Amino acid sequence: MSAPFLDLSSYLQHLEAVGRLRRVAVPVDKDRELACIARLSLESHRDREAYALRFDNVRGHAMPVAVNLYSTLEMYAAALGLVGETGSSAHGSAAVSSGACSPGATPLDLGRTVLERWALALDAPLPPVLVECGPVQQLVTRGDAVDLDAIPAPTWTPGRDAGPYLSAAAVITRDPDTGVQNVASYRVQVHDRRTMGLFFGSRLQHGAQHLARWAARGEPMPVALMVGGPPVVNFAAAAKTAYGVDEMGIAGGLAGAPLEVVRGQSVDLHVPARAEMVIEGLVRPGAQRLEGPFGEALGYMNHAAPALVIEVTAICRREGAVHHGYVQQLPPSDGHLVMELGVLGPLWYYLTRKLRLPGLRDLAILPGSAGVAALVVQLERSPDHDAARLGKALAKMNFGQKFIYLVDDDVDIRDLETVNWVISARVDPARDIVLVDGTSTFQYDPAVIARAVRDGVELGQPPYRCSLAIVDATIKCPVPEVSLPARAAMDAAGARWGELGLPPIVPRPRLRRLLDRAGGDADATR
User: Fold this and answer.
1) Alpha-carbon distance values, 430 to 16, 149, 194, 472, 490 (Å)
2) How far apart (Å, rounded) are the C-alpha atoms in residues 240 and 350?
3) Which end of the chain, C or N, has fewer beta carbons within 10 A?
4) Which of 8, 3, 18, 15 minimizes the C-alpha distance to 80?
């Protein structure tokens, strides 16, 4: 294990040192090419072959752009210090050498380890520490010198988006009554040299609630946008938490140490001292401008609509700053993974620390389900645990899921093929699927649109009406053994791997789990 990375530059150095970052030196256009290259990389390299990209020659800009930084669970965990320099986790080697093929060599528990780090952070947040100065304010521009066009914010859906967006900005606002800050991820379109759009999406968002309180005072709301900062700040900004929680404290809890913050140069806000860049400004209640269309994280374009306007008052940055963005349109992407764990971390904390539900082993969101839509719940196999009852309890705490899958502890819940296998083999649809109508979702997608058309209603701001399916894919009676070779036979084959003349392999985590539960020690010669 290593310490969590407290700024983006040290994390990028780590990725490059372990072969998880590739530099692009040739000129690349930020509005027509960059997102396309990043998307092609995401679609071609998954899991252990995935890597981050750093564009060092963005046409017309001196500032590099970094993308795909958290494309896999291992990369996310590395940012938290849960994966060591060689790519191994706290639970074992992440690779199998040419001389061994033990099914136990690939760590299965990394996902749960990340969830436990989240639970620790939520249980014991560490408030930030105010310092006099920090690298983020090495270069400061104000007033007429402010120029957003100098920032290489890409157009993320070329040919469809209205323009460039700060897709990974952590937006910092403050409750004027309590003084408590909030950090969250919102849509931010760059309009021109001095203004940006700010789209909350719903009046329920904590930033929108802050704005309402500033408006009640007849005052503009100060805002600061962190672009490229400590990874834990981006992770905390995605968290689904109660109103009044300062995500900077959660970020400190994730890091295991309080983060340093400095006072804004032009606004009364505390911002991460070690960020790459912070953009400060004011939002005047009632001032709006057309924003969008924009390719949303659900994989579909969202239409243009009036949105708030940020009047930029200052841009602060490090010397040699790097711009960071998410390619978060069609799933999957690193932005979706950050979103998923921002849902799962608080949910895991609530279920295991507050409700103390027995038998809960792990949580995951199915890859490709737009960050929230399909929740998979792993349960300890026991006659004392009522899967159907747990599923209904989870439905009442809906974070926007459309599907809740309940599975046994022999299932690798992060392996889509294995989840599909148990759904196919262990579910009787008439008996094991419960439909819950009238739930809510923040997803703007074809299903939501179709319901609105059917009901003859106009879609305003989310949440929207939807429904939810609880799928009980647990085993409910004695069943045959899984048709895998016995563990002894698999271990013997693995021991010979080095002499077979075959390339090194990394068995999928599901193999170890299935062998642990069902491989048995039967005589492999019979």
Assistant:
1) 51, 57, 58, 11, 38
2) 11
3) C
4) 3
Residue type, 268: D
**Runs of H (alpha helix) within 125-175:** none
The two tokens of residue 98 are 């040419």
Helix (H) or strand (E) holding 38: helix 34-44
Q: Using CA atoms, how far apart are residues 317 and 279, in angstroms rounded to an integer?
A: 9
Report the DSSP beta bridge partners of residue 472. Answer: 406
Kindly report the pTM of this predicted structure. Answer: 0.92
Which residue type is seen at 291?
E
Of the candidates 79, 177, 180, the one whose C-alpha atom is nearest the C-alpha of residue 125 is 180
Residue 147: which residues within 8 A CB-CB, separation 6 or more?
141, 193, 315
Q: Around Cβ 317, how many Cβ atoms within 10 Å?
A: 24
Distances (CA, A) of 59 to 24, 28, 66, 154, 384: 12, 6, 14, 11, 62
- Placement of tokens 């203004």 in the chain: 195
| Per-residue pLDDT band at 387 (split at 50, 70, 90) | confident
Q: How many CA atoms lie within 13 A of 197 on its CB side?
A: 24
pLDDT tens for each residue of 134-187? 999 999 999 999 999 999 999 999 999 999 999 999 999 999 999 999 999 999
Strands 139-142 and 305-317: antiparallel
Residue 468 CA to residue 132 CA, distance in Å, equals 50
Q: Are 278 and 222 in contact (CB under 8 A)?
A: no
Query: Quick one: tokens of 386?
Result: 């009522």
CA distance 296 to 492: 49
